[in-house]
Amino acid sequence: MFSLSPFWLHAQISPHAIVTGRIVDDSTGAPLPLTNVFVANSTIGTSANVEGKFVLKGVSLGEQQIVASIVGYVLETRTLRLTDTITYEIEFRLRPHELRMPGVIVEASDPVEWKKHLQRFMNSFFGTGKNATQCRLLNPQVLDFQIDEQNDRLTATAREPLEIENRALGYRTTYILRRYLESPQLLQFLGVTRFEEMRPKDTQESRRWIENRRNVYYGSRRHFLSALIRRTWREDGFEVNSIRKTPARMALMWRSGDEVDADTLLGPGRVPYERVLSFEGMLQVIYNQGRRKEFSLIQLDQPAVTIYASGLVENPLKMVTQGYWSIQRAADLLPTDYEPE
What we know:
- The protein is of the alpha+beta class and 341 residues long.
- The protein contains six helices and 21 strands.
- It has helices spanning 6-11, 111-126, 203-217, 221-230, 248-251, 324-327, and strands at residues 16-25, 36-39, 45-47, 53-60, 62-69, 76-82, 87-94, 135-137, 143-148, 153-158, 162-166, 171-182, 187-197, 238-242, 258-259, 266-268, 274-278, 282-289, 292-300, 304-308, 319-323.
- The strands form five sheets. Strands 8, 9, 10, 11, 12 and 13 form a six-stranded antiparallel beta sheet that branches. It has a five-stranded antiparallel beta sheet with strand order 15-14-18-19-21.
- The longest helix is centred in the middle third of the chain and has 16 residues, at 111-126.
- The protein is globular, with a radius of gyration of 21 Å.
């Protein structure tokens, strides 16, 4: 299960499955046509037909979240473990939203404080890189904030999915915020995203989007983990060092510690397209290509984590990063089905 076939090594293409199903009203069993169905964090999506049926093609193997959403019903997410290149069938039974009394408007108790928290959220969520300046949150009014003054900890929740326009990468995204926590020591945000390709104004903008997407992908954590599985991490420009005795602040500025053969970090997964990543302490990962030299640190919150051939992590909250990878935020998100041209 750990060995890779020659085709896999040369093609470097993740295997795919097909997901089909039907969406109905939970109480009546009636089909729900036009329901949006998509693979979380990808551009793969469709709408249910008049019979409530849908087909999603090209879904990468691994643990995938399939999301069904339509106005008037509670959004539902189904987690599937796709282990083979076959067709999987599921059924969604959506529950209507509870009726609420109309005509009641709730205003923020302190609009000035809300705006201050919103700006802090935007800076952390989108980041401060060049792509962040070209991102717009179209519906900020759906956000609510709580602040722990003693620990300077900001928590954000969203009453509806966040609608985002990213003109740096050419995507319009719907972001379902599941968790957001920010403090001086930690930033965690987790959500489910639907990506839709935007229409470029002209050929120049199209070329700019292609180049920006490539710049975001190359050197990213996803690129590194994918290169680990393909065993091309050296050729792709990565260097890995163990820094057990080196302060983190120093390891973010120059080469530190002892060189590690990254091939030894992976063990077999449950199926061929998975690997188990494990190591002790902290690793320094350097991406060095041309004029770019990016320093990142990686640490695990548990003895091992599962990673997929696409470079994604089964539980991303169990992998803590510092440096370059930590400054890549929502403004730098790419769909999971993106592959550099």
